[in-house]
Amino acid sequence: MSEKFDDAPAYRLETLAVRAGQERSQFGEHSEALYLTSSFVFKSAAQAAKRFSGEEEGNVYARFSNPTVTMFEERLAALEGAEDCVAMASGMAAIMAVCLAHLKQGDHIVASNSLFGATVQLFNNILSRTGITTTFVSHTDPAAWEAAIRPETKLFFLETPSNPLTEIADIRALTAIAHAHGILVAVDNCFCTPILQRPLEMGADLVVHSATKYIDGQGRVLGGAVCGPKKLTDEVFKYLRTAGPTLSAFNAWVLLKGLETMKLRVEAQSANAAKLAGWLEAHPKVARVFYPGLPSHPQYELAKSQQKSGGAIVSFELKGGREQAWTVVDNCHLLSITANLGDTKTTITHPATTTHGRITPEARAAAGISDGLLRIAVGLEALEDLQADLNRGLQLI
Ligand SMILES: *Cc1c(COP(=O)(O)O)cnc(C)c1O
Known about the structure:
Layout: E1 3-4, H1 13-19, E2 23-24, H2 45-53, H3 67-80, E3 84-88, H4 91-102, E4 108-112, H5 117-126, E5 133-137, H6 142-147, E6 153-159, H7 171-180, E7 184-188, H8 193-196, E8 206-210, E9 224-228, H9 230-243, H10 249-281, E10 286-290, H11 300-306, E11 313-318, H12 322-330, E12 336-337, E13 347-349, H13 361-366, E14 373-377, H14 383-394
Helix pairs in contact: 1-3, 1-10, 3-10, 4-9, 12-14
Bound molecules: pyridoxal-5'-phosphate.
Pyridoxal-5'-phosphate binds next to α4 and α5.
């Protein structure tokens, strides 16, 4: 007999983070078990038949059910305030799953023009082959979203704050527009996590995650998830069951333990980022800082109305161009030169020559990505050490 955590009385986030979803086996393990098995055995032919038909609940085959994965799904659902969650192999797999579960040939997506790069590629180059088309519109202008709606529009897809300029999309306003036209809204909540932003409470229909970022938070494994009401996630589950972009049990176990410390990490990293952003803003070599937690951010009030804090991503423009930006990057001994984010270790990226290097200089300029722009994903190191590391290069320019 197994024993399941009962989250019936509404526990607080801290409690859910370490307890929700846990199912203890007959061995009474305190920490969640890792079930490395691809299939499950039945007591009889009759039980096998019932499990396959769905008449009896239980595990069948790990492409679509595994107890460790289920524990991760239930814990993340609890944190997002979602009825259900379906785990996926990666964040991109989760986005693809939302689209293929809810759209068909001829359908249309309206999406933010400042989405994660691979999401743009997915919509433009892969999904387009199935006859699903996408119109990209201004991240910050709800009227542009409304104007892009066609009779065949089925999905609004957004991500906020944007990368790397930390622009805020108004989740409540976009949801109201979408719902007036019977359109679903999916929000990629990777940058904020449910600790800082809960899109479902603001009306969004589905939340997608790259669990690779803050949910793991320690740069170890890839994972993804889709959260929402069961009537929508059931379609996602059917897609997973057949198409198989499955989260491995091992990765689920790593991510499940990641969720336990996510609140502490995200709050500490965000507090570190807020202080670093303030310091950068006052720095004589810095022209401009992009951080939703600074009153100088053009959407500071909107950010405050939908995020608990500014998050841990800070971008800034130097007084200078590519050469000066590279000088700062190359003089970092502590900050990791990598495009990854969400890690406890602080990372620094020069978007114009990495994440946004393949788009034309004109398109880059239109998107506001200048050659002097740097993005920092703030980790858990001491603020003073991060400042000293950045200052080494800043002094030289
Ligand atoms: C990383 C990322 C993704 C993709 O996630 P993977 O786990 O790398 O597939 C999607 N959206 C955002 C905002 C991301 O940062």
